């Protein structure tokens, strides 16, 4: 009986495959390049990365299975908790500084009758400046002593010089301000696109009924935009959680690790110390944390939609 | 109807899964195999090897110069063909290239990278060729030791140096730090260094000293101070385990010295994120009067516009426990994928172009060409090599004779650096040196940004972190 089932299955599978292929040949052909690219560029490295995190590596060659040793090493590193905490600090500051502003600006732009295009373009401009250039511009802005641009401004206002990136308490919010400035335009465009999807009749009707800006915002805009707001929120959490190049260029994780993130620690393991197995293990840890956050997002999303 | 829909759905899923599986397999297989390194012979039957660090199209003049030299070599040694490769050693890309088998046959790196490369198996054992061509016998044993592991030699050191203290003479003159005979006064101890820096700051408003703080350069710079204060960073016990040993009074004193430079004497720049580029920029653009570095530092002139005659290099200052200067330099290595014939060719090219035990007329001419080019580019040529590469005094005298003809700076500005016998030269710490520098970067950053820092606690934490996060992970 078992053998028969096997034969049936082995005979049926290729014919089913052939049929499916024949039926949708153009579709499959169109999909093929994307599937190949996804496999080579995304899925294979992820799978290989996860696999290798359980091995001792010589360069990129696995030389022995070590179980969870690499994970234990990165998690018990005396800087791990501090670094994880720092990374969440980036996320929280980005939600405080970078999250509400584009939303409010988008709503204001949507209400504007003239100059909308100008503001749209000018707010998007920082987004097209290369990341490294943005870091260098803001590094000059935050320069310490009399040579820093912000300190020059303070001097014009007859105020003393302030400490910027050298202050361990200020360094993360200051980097987040820069990141928000750069990402502002992209988020704004997403909100504006969503706003333009609102039925204008609803809006007009509300106006005729005497609804003011606040009422229109809470009763029409907010319910309509809840989906995109959640999407932006989760995208922002995920991207800020991976922050690496900004602290690398601006502070090298300093002062004394005050702006060090999981991403930068990962970079250090790989490119400074050549400890690729630890880098991969930390990558998996970060991946799991992000999966956890994404699950929370989906639960929230489901609740809101229900 | 429902069953049919279900079947269709199942078929689609099966089809998709199968396609994915096939492509995945192909992709995995495509990652396997493949040739490593350059084939030994080219289409003309000549032995070929690639040489890294070749000037690319953005540096046309240098490229033409090297191409001419290549053509001359290939003419004289017609069995060889050189393949040029613009790859320059970079910690971020090296492992990828080495693993992918795409390293140039010949590549140059720094002393700090030697152990890592040898341990990972990314350099060929060249003992046979070092013996054959006289390097093992004639080269300074201190340098050979750096490239030797378990009795095998893996590299050719071709530039070496010890750290010294660079002084901006122009700023020193403005600060009145001049002897009666017009020569520049310079500090000989770290305490004097602080005093001189204070004078410079008071008289000119320019920071007296710039220290590196970031990207491992802070730790690297600090080693010279710490050793001179008597710090012992690590020890190996009888069981072979390494122990961090810098939770000591000596370390506290060395860290306190850096703290005082900032908070007591206020002689450091305001910027506290200083990597090697920023360090050179700060000194090269006369925004600081002194910094710890190695010669000849041509880039201070070519990149930052500093006048070469404004520079002076003096011995590293002495601390309470001695006068220690870190050793550094460049080393040539050969890809482990190279065949014996390619290694032999790479050696012949290296001896023609870069370094050899005995100097032929041709090699002397090549050296002279290189010095002339350095001068034409606005760089610096000293009247001697920064470090004795060879044990034979006559061989070193030959080097001095050639470089003296092209020296374009006053030898007096470098004589004390070269002739001070009280300097003890130290190589890097034996294990986890890069990791140690990262830990020390953090210590330096903390004392320069936190006036209320608890140095006792900071040093203890750094020592324990280094032990737990790095030394305990060694096998």
Task: Kindly describe this structure.
- The complex is a heterodimer of chains A (306) and B (475).
- Chain A starts with a helix and ends with a helix.
- In chain A, helix 11 runs antiparallel to helix 14 (276-305).
- Chain A has 2 domains: 2-52, no CATH class; 72-305, MetI-like fold.
- In chain A, strands 1-2 form a two-stranded antiparallel sheet.
- Helix content of chain A is 74%, strand content 3%.
- Chain A is built from 14 helices and 2 strands.
- Chain A is flat, with a radius of gyration of 25 Å.
- The model of chain B has no long low-confidence stretch (mean pLDDT 89).
- Chain B has 2 domains: 47-161 and 328-406, Periplasmic binding protein-like II (D-Maltodextrin-Binding Protein, domain 2, 3-Layer(aba) Sandwich), CATH 3.40.190.10; 164-293 and 431-473, D-Maltodextrin-Binding Protein, domain 2.
- The termini of chain B are far apart.
- In chain B, helix 11 crosses helix 18.
- Classes of the chains: A mainly alpha (306), B alpha+beta (475).
- At the A-B interface, helix 1, helix 2 and helix 13 of A face helix 1, helix 3, helix 18 and helix 19 of B.
What would you report as the Rg of chain A, rounded to the nearest angstrom? 25 Å
What is the oligomer described by this structure?
heterodimer
The secondary structure category of chain B is alpha+beta
Q: Tell me what portion of residues of chain B adopts beta-strand conformation.
A: 5-15%
Low-confidence stretches of chain A: none
User: Total number of helical segments of chain A?
Assistant: 14
Write the H/E string of chain A, N to C: HHEEHHHHHHHHHHHH
The portion of residues assigned to helices of chain B is 40-55%
Query: Based on CA inertia axes, which overall geometry of chain B fits?
Result: globular
The level 1 CATH classification of the largest domain in chain B is Alpha Beta
Could you give a short account of the major beta sheet of chain A? 2 strands, antiparallel
User: Could you name the CATH topology of the largest domain in chain A?
Assistant: MetI-like fold
Interface with most residues: A-B, 50 and 49 residues
Number of domains of chain A: 2
Give the rounded overall mean pLDDT of chain A. Answer: 85
Count of DSSP strands of chain B = 13
Strand content of chain A: under 5%
CATH homology group of the largest domain in chain A = MetI-like
């Amino acid at each position: 009986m078992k053998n028969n089932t096997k034969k049936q299955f082995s005979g049926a599978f290729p014919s089913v495959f052939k049929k499916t292929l024949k039926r949708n040949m153009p579709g499959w052909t169109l999909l093929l390049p994307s599937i190949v690219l996804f496999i080579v560029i995304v899925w294979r490295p992820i799978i290989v990365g996860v696999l290798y995190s359980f091995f001792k590596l010589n360069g990129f060659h696995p030389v022995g299975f070590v179980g969870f040793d690499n994970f234990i090493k990165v998690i018990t590193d005396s800087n791990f908790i501090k670094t994880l905490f720092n990374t969440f600090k980036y996320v929280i500051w980005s939600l405080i500084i970078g999250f509400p502003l584009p939303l409010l600006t988008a709503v204001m732009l949507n209400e504007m009758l003239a100059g909308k295009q100008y503001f749209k373009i000018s707010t998007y401009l920082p987004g097209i400046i290369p990341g490294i250039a943005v870091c260098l511009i803001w590094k000059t802005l935050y320069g310490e002593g009399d040579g820093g641009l912000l300190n020059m401004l303070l001097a014009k206002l007859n105020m003393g010089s302030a400490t910027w990136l050298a202050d361990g308490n200020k360094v993360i919010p200051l980097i987040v301000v820069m990141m928000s400035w750069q990402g502002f335009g992209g988020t704004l465009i997403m909100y504006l696109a969503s706003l333009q999807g609102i039925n204008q009749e609803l809006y007009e009707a509300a106006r005729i009924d005497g609804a003011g800006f606040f009422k229109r915002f809470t009763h029409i805009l907010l319910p309509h935009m809840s989906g995109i707001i959640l999407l932006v929120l989760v995208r922002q959490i995920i991207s800020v959680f991976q922050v690496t190049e900004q602290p690398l260029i601006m502070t090298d994780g300093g002062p004394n690790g005050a702006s060090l993130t999981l991403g930068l620690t990962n970079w250090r393991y790989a490119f400074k110390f050549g400890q690729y197995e630890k880098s991969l293990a930390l990558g998996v840890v970060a991946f799991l944390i992000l999966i956890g956050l994404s699950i929370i997002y989906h639960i929230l999303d489901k609740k809101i939609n229900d | 109807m429902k069953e049919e829909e279900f079947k269709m759905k199942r078929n689609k899923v099966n089809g998709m899964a199968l396609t994915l599986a096939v492509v995945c397999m192909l992709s995995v297989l495509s990652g396997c195999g493949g040739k490593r390194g350059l084939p030994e012979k080219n289409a003309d039957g000549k032995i070929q090897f690639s040489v890294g660090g070749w000037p690319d199209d953005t540096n046309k003049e240098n490229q033409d110069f090297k191409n001419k030299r290549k053509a001359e070599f290939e003419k004289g040694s017609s069995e060889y063909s050189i393949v040029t490769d613009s790859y320059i050693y970079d910690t971020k890309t090296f492992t990828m290239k080495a693993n992918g088998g795409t390293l140039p046959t010949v590549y140059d790196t720094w002393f700090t990278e030697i152990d890592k490369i040898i341990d990972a198996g990314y350099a060929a054992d060249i003992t046979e060729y070092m013996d054959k061509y006289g390097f093992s016998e004639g080269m300074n044993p201190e340098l050979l030791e750096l490239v030797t592991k378990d009795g095998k030699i893996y590299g050719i050191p071709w530039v070496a140096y010890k750290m010294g203290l660079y002084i901006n003479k122009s700023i020193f003159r403005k600060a009145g730090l001049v002897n009666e005979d017009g020569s520049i006064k310079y500090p000989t101890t770290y305490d004097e260094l602080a005093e001189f820096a204070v004078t410079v700051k008071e008289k000119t408003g320019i920071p007296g000293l710039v220290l590196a703080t970031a990207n491992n350069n802070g730790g690297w710079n600090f080693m010279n101070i710490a050793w001179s204060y008597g710090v012992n960073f690590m020890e190996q016990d009888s069981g072979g385990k390494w122990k961090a040993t810098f939770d000591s009074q000596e370390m506290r004193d060395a860290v306190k010295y850096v703290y005082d430079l900032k908070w007591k004497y206020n002689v450091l720049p305001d910027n506290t994120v200083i990597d090697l580029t920023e360090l050179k920029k700060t000194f090269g653009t006369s925004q600081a009067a002194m910094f710890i570095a190695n010669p000849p530092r041509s880039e201070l002139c070519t990149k930052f516009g500093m006048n070469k005659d404004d520079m002076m290099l003096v011995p590293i200052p002495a601390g309470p426990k001695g006068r220690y200067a870190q050793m550094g330099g460049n080393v040539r290595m050969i890809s482990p994928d190279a065949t014996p014939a390619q290694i032999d060719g790479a050696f012949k090219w290296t001896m023609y172009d870069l370094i050899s035990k005995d100097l032929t007329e041709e090699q002397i001419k090549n050296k002279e060409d290189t010095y002339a080019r350095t001068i034409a580019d606005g760089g610096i040529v000293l009247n001697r090599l920064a470090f004795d590469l060879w044990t034979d005094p006559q061989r070193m005298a030959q080097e001095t004779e050639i470089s003296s003809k092209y020296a374009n700076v006053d030898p007096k500005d470098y004589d004390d650096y070269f002739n001070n016998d009280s300097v003890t030269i130290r190589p890097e710490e034996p294990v986890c040196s890069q990791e140690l520098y990262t830990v020390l970067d953090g210590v330096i950053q903390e004392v320069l940004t936190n006036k209320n820092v608890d140095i006792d606690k900071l040093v203890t934490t750094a020592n324990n972190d280094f032990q737990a996060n790095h030394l305990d992970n060694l096998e």
